[in-house]
Predict the 3D structure of the following.
Amino acid sequence: MPNIEAIQTALRQQKIDGWLFYDILHRDPIAYRVLGLDHAMAKRRWFYMIPAKGAPRKLVHRIEAGMLDSLPGDKMLYAAAEELEKNLKKLVGRAKKVAMQYSPKNSIPYISLVDAGTVELIRAQGCKVVSSADLVQVFEAAWTPEQLESHRAAGRAIDAITQAAFAEAARRVAAGESFTEFDLQQWMLGQFRANGVVSDSPPIVAVGPHSGDPHYEPRERGSSLIKRGDLLLLDVWAKTQTPNSVYYDITWTGFLGGKVPEKCAKIFSIVRDARDAAVEFVKENVSAGRAIEGWQVDRAAREVIRKAGFAKYFVHRTGHNIGQEVHGAGANMDGLETRDIRRIIPNTCFSVEPGIYLPEFGVRSEVNVYVADGKAEVTGAVQTEILKLLA
Protein backbone atom coordinates (compact mmCIF):
# COMPACT_ATOMS: atom_id res chain seq x y z
CA MET A 1 0.00 0.00 0.00
CA PRO A 2 1.51 3.38 -0.97
CA ASN A 3 1.91 6.11 1.62
CA ILE A 4 -0.63 8.47 0.07
CA GLU A 5 -0.15 11.16 2.68
CA ALA A 6 3.63 11.24 2.18
CA ILE A 7 3.25 11.37 -1.60
CA GLN A 8 0.78 14.24 -1.34
CA THR A 9 3.13 16.15 0.95
CA ALA A 10 5.94 15.71 -1.60
CA LEU A 11 3.65 16.84 -4.42
CA ARG A 12 2.77 20.03 -2.57
CA GLN A 13 6.42 20.69 -1.80
CA GLN A 14 7.29 20.34 -5.48
CA LYS A 15 4.24 22.38 -6.54
CA ILE A 16 2.82 19.55 -8.65
CA ASP A 17 -0.94 18.92 -8.79
CA GLY A 18 -0.73 15.15 -8.96
CA TRP A 19 1.26 12.00 -9.70
CA LEU A 20 -0.36 10.06 -12.52
CA PHE A 21 0.61 6.39 -12.78
CA TYR A 22 -0.07 4.50 -15.99
CA ASP A 23 0.73 1.06 -17.32
CA ILE A 24 -0.07 -1.65 -19.82
CA LEU A 25 1.71 -5.02 -20.13
CA HIS A 26 3.90 -4.27 -17.09
CA ARG A 27 6.02 -1.72 -18.93
CA ASP A 28 6.53 0.41 -15.82
CA PRO A 29 8.03 -1.56 -12.91
CA ILE A 30 8.40 1.67 -10.92
CA ALA A 31 4.61 2.06 -10.77
CA TYR A 32 4.14 -1.44 -9.38
CA ARG A 33 6.78 -0.99 -6.69
CA VAL A 34 5.71 2.50 -5.57
CA LEU A 35 2.05 1.50 -5.47
CA GLY A 36 2.70 -1.93 -3.95
CA LEU A 37 0.88 -3.76 -6.74
CA ASP A 38 1.45 -7.37 -7.61
CA HIS A 39 2.07 -8.30 -11.21
CA ALA A 40 -1.48 -9.33 -11.99
CA MET A 41 -2.84 -9.33 -15.51
CA ALA A 42 -2.44 -5.92 -17.15
CA LYS A 43 -3.38 -6.37 -20.78
CA ARG A 44 -5.42 -3.17 -20.84
CA ARG A 45 -4.42 0.35 -19.88
CA TRP A 46 -4.88 1.45 -16.29
CA PHE A 47 -4.39 4.86 -14.64
CA TYR A 48 -4.04 5.87 -11.01
CA MET A 49 -4.08 9.53 -10.02
CA ILE A 50 -2.78 10.71 -6.64
CA PRO A 51 -3.70 14.41 -6.38
CA ALA A 52 -1.79 16.83 -4.18
CA LYS A 53 -5.02 17.19 -2.18
CA GLY A 54 -8.04 14.94 -1.91
CA ALA A 55 -8.70 11.26 -2.56
CA PRO A 56 -6.93 9.26 -5.28
CA ARG A 57 -8.83 8.22 -8.40
CA LYS A 58 -8.44 5.19 -10.66
CA LEU A 59 -9.44 4.29 -14.19
CA VAL A 60 -9.44 0.67 -15.36
CA HIS A 61 -10.83 -1.37 -18.24
CA ARG A 62 -14.10 -3.20 -17.68
CA ILE A 63 -12.58 -6.62 -18.32
CA GLU A 64 -9.83 -5.94 -15.74
CA ALA A 65 -12.07 -4.02 -13.36
CA GLY A 66 -10.33 -5.34 -10.23
CA MET A 67 -6.84 -4.37 -11.34
CA LEU A 68 -6.43 -1.55 -8.78
CA ASP A 69 -8.82 -2.73 -6.07
CA SER A 70 -5.98 -2.95 -3.55
CA LEU A 71 -5.52 0.82 -3.79
CA PRO A 72 -7.70 3.50 -2.17
CA GLY A 73 -9.83 5.84 -4.24
CA ASP A 74 -12.92 6.00 -6.43
CA LYS A 75 -12.95 3.81 -9.50
CA MET A 76 -14.04 4.67 -13.04
CA LEU A 77 -14.42 2.14 -15.85
CA TYR A 78 -14.00 2.27 -19.60
CA ALA A 79 -14.21 -0.02 -22.59
CA ALA A 80 -14.44 2.09 -25.75
CA ALA A 81 -11.74 4.63 -26.61
CA GLU A 82 -14.29 7.44 -26.36
CA GLU A 83 -15.18 6.33 -22.85
CA LEU A 84 -11.49 6.25 -21.91
CA GLU A 85 -10.94 9.86 -22.99
CA LYS A 86 -14.12 11.04 -21.29
CA ASN A 87 -13.09 9.47 -17.99
CA LEU A 88 -9.50 10.65 -18.31
CA LYS A 89 -10.86 14.18 -18.13
CA LYS A 90 -12.52 13.30 -14.83
CA LEU A 91 -9.43 11.44 -13.63
CA VAL A 92 -7.08 14.43 -13.89
CA GLY A 93 -9.79 16.81 -12.70
CA ARG A 94 -8.57 20.37 -12.29
CA ALA A 95 -4.90 19.46 -12.28
CA LYS A 96 -2.74 21.67 -14.46
CA LYS A 97 0.60 19.96 -13.80
CA VAL A 98 0.99 16.21 -13.31
CA ALA A 99 4.08 14.08 -12.83
CA MET A 100 4.53 10.90 -14.84
CA GLN A 101 7.38 8.46 -15.49
CA TYR A 102 8.55 10.78 -18.24
CA SER A 103 11.88 12.49 -18.91
CA PRO A 104 12.19 15.41 -21.36
CA LYS A 105 14.28 14.32 -24.36
CA ASN A 106 14.77 10.96 -22.61
CA SER A 107 17.54 12.55 -20.54
CA ILE A 108 17.03 10.02 -17.72
CA PRO A 109 16.19 6.78 -19.57
CA TYR A 110 15.41 4.79 -16.41
CA ILE A 111 12.53 7.18 -15.66
CA SER A 112 11.31 7.61 -19.24
CA LEU A 113 8.81 4.73 -19.23
CA VAL A 114 5.55 6.34 -20.41
CA ASP A 115 5.21 6.34 -24.19
CA ALA A 116 4.95 9.60 -26.13
CA GLY A 117 1.38 8.90 -27.24
CA THR A 118 0.13 8.59 -23.67
CA VAL A 119 1.89 11.83 -22.73
CA GLU A 120 0.09 13.48 -25.66
CA LEU A 121 -3.20 12.02 -24.44
CA ILE A 122 -2.73 13.55 -20.97
CA ARG A 123 -1.66 16.88 -22.41
CA ALA A 124 -4.87 16.89 -24.43
CA GLN A 125 -6.75 17.00 -21.11
CA GLY A 126 -5.19 20.41 -20.44
CA CYS A 127 -2.33 19.13 -18.24
CA LYS A 128 1.34 19.88 -18.36
CA VAL A 129 3.30 16.65 -17.91
CA VAL A 130 6.50 16.91 -15.86
CA SER A 131 9.04 14.30 -14.83
CA SER A 132 8.43 12.20 -11.73
CA ALA A 133 12.20 11.70 -11.36
CA ASP A 134 12.53 13.47 -8.02
CA LEU A 135 9.41 11.78 -6.64
CA VAL A 136 10.69 8.39 -7.74
CA GLN A 137 13.92 8.95 -5.84
CA VAL A 138 12.05 9.51 -2.59
CA PHE A 139 9.48 6.72 -2.94
CA GLU A 140 11.42 4.13 -4.95
CA ALA A 141 15.18 4.68 -4.61
CA ALA A 142 15.34 5.42 -0.86
CA TRP A 143 16.04 2.26 1.13
CA THR A 144 14.46 1.03 4.33
CA PRO A 145 16.72 -0.24 7.15
CA GLU A 146 15.76 -3.78 6.14
CA GLN A 147 16.88 -3.16 2.56
CA LEU A 148 20.22 -1.80 3.75
CA GLU A 149 20.73 -4.96 5.77
CA SER A 150 19.86 -7.08 2.71
CA HIS A 151 22.51 -5.14 0.76
CA ARG A 152 25.11 -5.81 3.44
CA ALA A 153 24.18 -9.50 3.54
CA ALA A 154 24.51 -9.74 -0.24
CA GLY A 155 27.81 -7.90 0.01
CA ARG A 156 29.25 -10.42 2.44
CA ALA A 157 28.31 -13.25 0.09
CA ILE A 158 29.50 -11.54 -3.10
CA ASP A 159 32.81 -10.37 -1.61
CA ALA A 160 33.50 -13.96 -0.55
CA ILE A 161 32.41 -15.45 -3.90
CA THR A 162 34.57 -12.98 -5.83
CA GLN A 163 37.70 -13.82 -3.84
CA ALA A 164 36.90 -17.53 -4.12
CA ALA A 165 36.58 -17.16 -7.90
CA PHE A 166 40.04 -15.61 -8.12
CA ALA A 167 41.39 -18.47 -6.01
CA GLU A 168 39.60 -21.04 -8.20
CA ALA A 169 41.08 -19.49 -11.35
CA ALA A 170 44.55 -19.55 -9.82
CA ARG A 171 44.12 -23.18 -8.75
CA ARG A 172 43.05 -24.30 -12.20
CA VAL A 173 45.84 -22.41 -13.96
CA ALA A 174 48.45 -23.76 -11.55
CA ALA A 175 47.11 -27.29 -12.15
CA GLY A 176 47.39 -26.82 -15.91
CA GLU A 177 43.66 -27.22 -16.47
CA SER A 178 42.05 -25.93 -19.66
CA PHE A 179 39.09 -23.71 -18.79
CA THR A 180 37.38 -20.62 -20.17
CA GLU A 181 35.74 -17.42 -18.99
CA PHE A 182 32.40 -19.15 -19.42
CA ASP A 183 33.51 -22.08 -17.25
CA LEU A 184 34.52 -19.77 -14.41
CA GLN A 185 31.28 -17.81 -14.77
CA GLN A 186 29.26 -21.03 -14.43
CA TRP A 187 31.30 -22.00 -11.35
CA MET A 188 30.42 -18.63 -9.84
CA LEU A 189 26.72 -19.14 -10.56
CA GLY A 190 26.97 -22.38 -8.59
CA GLN A 191 28.36 -20.35 -5.70
CA PHE A 192 25.41 -17.96 -6.03
CA ARG A 193 23.03 -20.86 -5.56
CA ALA A 194 25.02 -22.28 -2.66
CA ASN A 195 25.03 -18.90 -0.89
CA GLY A 196 21.39 -18.02 -1.50
CA VAL A 197 21.89 -14.98 -3.74
CA VAL A 198 20.29 -14.27 -7.11
CA SER A 199 20.95 -11.95 -10.03
CA ASP A 200 19.18 -10.69 -13.12
CA SER A 201 22.11 -11.91 -15.25
CA PRO A 202 25.40 -13.79 -14.79
CA PRO A 203 28.62 -12.09 -13.69
CA ILE A 204 31.16 -10.75 -16.16
CA VAL A 205 34.32 -12.84 -16.37
CA ALA A 206 36.83 -11.36 -18.80
CA VAL A 207 40.51 -11.73 -19.69
CA GLY A 208 42.73 -9.96 -22.21
CA PRO A 209 40.92 -7.85 -24.81
CA HIS A 210 37.56 -8.97 -23.44
CA SER A 211 38.31 -7.04 -20.23
CA GLY A 212 38.39 -3.93 -22.43
CA ASP A 213 34.71 -4.47 -23.28
CA PRO A 214 32.73 -2.98 -20.34
CA HIS A 215 29.69 -5.21 -20.93
CA TYR A 216 31.38 -8.34 -22.24
CA GLU A 217 29.22 -11.47 -21.90
CA PRO A 218 31.02 -14.83 -21.83
CA ARG A 219 29.35 -17.42 -24.00
CA GLU A 220 29.79 -21.17 -24.06
CA ARG A 221 31.16 -20.81 -27.59
CA GLY A 222 33.80 -18.15 -28.17
CA SER A 223 34.94 -17.52 -24.61
CA SER A 224 38.69 -17.11 -24.10
CA LEU A 225 40.82 -19.62 -22.24
CA ILE A 226 42.03 -18.32 -18.87
CA LYS A 227 45.78 -18.84 -18.62
CA ARG A 228 48.95 -17.72 -16.88
CA GLY A 229 49.82 -14.10 -17.65
CA ASP A 230 46.17 -13.00 -18.05
CA LEU A 231 44.55 -10.00 -16.39
CA LEU A 232 41.24 -11.30 -15.03
CA LEU A 233 38.31 -8.90 -14.47
CA LEU A 234 35.27 -9.96 -12.43
CA ASP A 235 32.12 -7.82 -12.32
CA VAL A 236 29.69 -9.41 -9.87
CA TRP A 237 26.22 -8.32 -8.75
CA ALA A 238 23.47 -10.08 -6.82
CA LYS A 239 20.94 -9.74 -4.03
CA THR A 240 19.46 -11.96 -1.35
CA GLN A 241 16.15 -13.74 -1.82
CA THR A 242 14.39 -11.82 0.95
CA PRO A 243 11.37 -9.74 -0.16
CA ASN A 244 12.28 -6.26 -1.48
CA SER A 245 16.00 -7.00 -1.24
CA VAL A 246 18.46 -4.74 -3.05
CA TYR A 247 21.62 -5.40 -5.03
CA TYR A 248 25.31 -5.31 -4.23
CA ASP A 249 27.56 -4.72 -7.27
CA ILE A 250 31.38 -4.76 -7.47
CA THR A 251 34.24 -5.12 -9.95
CA TRP A 252 37.74 -6.40 -9.09
CA THR A 253 40.80 -7.37 -11.14
CA GLY A 254 43.51 -9.96 -10.59
CA PHE A 255 46.63 -11.05 -12.45
CA LEU A 256 47.42 -14.69 -13.06
CA GLY A 257 51.10 -14.35 -12.30
CA GLY A 258 53.49 -13.22 -9.61
CA LYS A 259 54.42 -9.80 -11.03
CA VAL A 260 51.75 -7.47 -12.39
CA PRO A 261 52.86 -5.86 -15.69
CA GLU A 262 53.84 -2.23 -15.28
CA LYS A 263 51.22 -0.96 -17.73
CA CYS A 264 48.42 -2.84 -15.99
CA ALA A 265 49.53 -1.53 -12.61
CA LYS A 266 49.69 2.03 -13.96
CA ILE A 267 46.20 1.89 -15.46
CA PHE A 268 44.80 0.39 -12.26
CA SER A 269 46.36 3.14 -10.16
CA ILE A 270 44.68 5.82 -12.31
CA VAL A 271 41.32 4.09 -12.10
CA ARG A 272 41.70 3.59 -8.34
CA ASP A 273 42.56 7.26 -7.83
CA ALA A 274 39.54 8.31 -9.92
CA ARG A 275 37.30 6.03 -7.86
CA ASP A 276 38.69 7.38 -4.61
CA ALA A 277 38.34 10.99 -5.77
CA ALA A 278 34.64 10.46 -6.48
CA VAL A 279 34.05 8.69 -3.17
CA GLU A 280 35.86 11.41 -1.23
CA PHE A 281 33.88 14.11 -3.05
CA VAL A 282 30.66 12.46 -1.90
CA LYS A 283 31.85 11.92 1.66
CA GLU A 284 33.07 15.49 2.12
CA ASN A 285 29.95 17.13 0.74
CA VAL A 286 27.48 14.86 2.53
CA SER A 287 29.33 15.39 5.80
CA ALA A 288 29.22 19.16 5.27
CA GLY A 289 25.51 19.09 4.45
CA ARG A 290 26.02 20.34 0.90
CA ALA A 291 23.65 19.17 -1.83
CA ILE A 292 25.34 17.37 -4.72
CA GLU A 293 24.07 16.09 -8.05
CA GLY A 294 24.95 12.94 -9.94
CA TRP A 295 26.90 14.66 -12.71
CA GLN A 296 29.22 16.28 -10.17
CA VAL A 297 30.33 12.90 -8.84
CA ASP A 298 31.02 11.78 -12.40
CA ARG A 299 33.12 14.89 -12.96
CA ALA A 300 35.23 14.21 -9.86
CA ALA A 301 36.26 10.79 -11.21
CA ARG A 302 36.49 11.75 -14.86
CA GLU A 303 38.82 14.64 -14.18
CA VAL A 304 41.44 12.31 -12.70
CA ILE A 305 41.38 10.12 -15.78
CA ARG A 306 41.40 13.14 -18.10
CA LYS A 307 44.49 14.60 -16.43
CA ALA A 308 46.24 11.24 -16.80
CA GLY A 309 45.61 11.38 -20.56
CA PHE A 310 43.08 8.54 -20.85
CA ALA A 311 39.80 10.45 -21.17
CA LYS A 312 38.81 8.82 -24.48
CA TYR A 313 39.16 5.38 -22.91
CA PHE A 314 36.63 6.09 -20.14
CA VAL A 315 33.50 5.47 -22.18
CA HIS A 316 30.68 5.19 -19.63
CA ARG A 317 29.26 7.08 -16.68
CA THR A 318 30.98 6.80 -13.31
CA GLY A 319 28.12 5.01 -11.58
CA HIS A 320 24.48 4.04 -11.38
CA ASN A 321 21.84 3.98 -8.68
CA ILE A 322 21.34 0.62 -6.99
CA GLY A 323 18.00 -0.74 -5.82
CA GLN A 324 15.76 -3.75 -6.22
CA GLU A 325 17.06 -3.70 -9.77
CA VAL A 326 20.83 -3.49 -10.13
CA HIS A 327 20.39 -0.33 -12.20
CA GLY A 328 17.95 1.48 -9.96
CA ALA A 329 15.69 4.47 -10.49
CA GLY A 330 17.61 7.04 -8.42
CA ALA A 331 20.33 9.47 -9.41
CA ASN A 332 23.13 8.13 -11.59
CA MET A 333 26.70 9.42 -11.37
CA ASP A 334 26.57 10.63 -14.94
CA GLY A 335 27.90 13.67 -16.74
CA LEU A 336 28.79 11.84 -19.95
CA GLU A 337 25.93 9.73 -21.30
CA THR A 338 23.46 12.18 -19.76
CA ARG A 339 23.74 15.11 -17.37
CA ASP A 340 22.01 13.75 -14.30
CA ILE A 341 20.98 16.79 -12.29
CA ARG A 342 19.09 14.81 -9.65
CA ARG A 343 20.29 15.39 -6.13
CA ILE A 344 21.79 12.51 -4.19
CA ILE A 345 19.38 12.06 -1.31
CA PRO A 346 19.67 10.21 2.02
CA ASN A 347 19.07 6.46 2.21
CA THR A 348 20.14 5.83 -1.38
CA CYS A 349 23.02 3.80 -2.78
CA PHE A 350 25.00 3.94 -6.00
CA SER A 351 28.06 2.45 -7.64
CA VAL A 352 31.30 4.30 -8.29
CA GLU A 353 33.04 2.39 -11.09
CA PRO A 354 35.41 4.33 -13.34
CA GLY A 355 37.28 2.35 -15.96
CA ILE A 356 39.93 2.62 -18.67
CA TYR A 357 39.44 0.31 -21.64
CA LEU A 358 42.39 -0.23 -23.95
CA PRO A 359 42.48 -2.53 -26.99
CA GLU A 360 44.65 -5.10 -25.21
CA PHE A 361 43.01 -4.99 -21.76
CA GLY A 362 40.71 -2.96 -19.55
CA VAL A 363 40.52 -2.09 -15.86
CA ARG A 364 37.47 -1.12 -13.83
CA SER A 365 37.22 -0.76 -10.06
CA GLU A 366 33.73 -0.66 -8.56
CA VAL A 367 32.47 0.01 -5.06
CA ASN A 368 29.04 0.80 -3.64
CA VAL A 369 28.41 4.05 -1.75
CA TYR A 370 25.49 4.39 0.67
CA VAL A 371 24.37 7.88 1.70
CA ALA A 372 22.63 8.48 5.02
CA ASP A 373 21.85 11.74 6.80
CA GLY A 374 25.18 13.51 7.15
CA LYS A 375 27.30 10.50 6.25
CA ALA A 376 28.38 8.46 3.23
CA GLU A 377 30.17 5.11 3.33
CA VAL A 378 31.56 2.43 1.06
CA THR A 379 29.64 -0.67 2.01
CA GLY A 380 32.13 -3.40 1.17
CA ALA A 381 35.78 -4.27 0.62
CA VAL A 382 37.89 -1.82 -1.39
CA GLN A 383 40.59 -2.96 -3.83
CA THR A 384 43.85 -0.99 -3.60
CA GLU A 385 45.99 -2.88 -6.12
CA ILE A 386 45.63 -5.63 -8.70
CA LEU A 387 45.58 -9.00 -6.96
CA LYS A 388 48.58 -11.25 -7.63
CA LEU A 389 46.99 -14.64 -8.10
CA LEU A 390 50.03 -16.85 -8.77
CA ALA A 391 53.57 -16.97 -7.52
The chain has a mean pLDDT of 97. The first helix runs from residue 4 to 13.
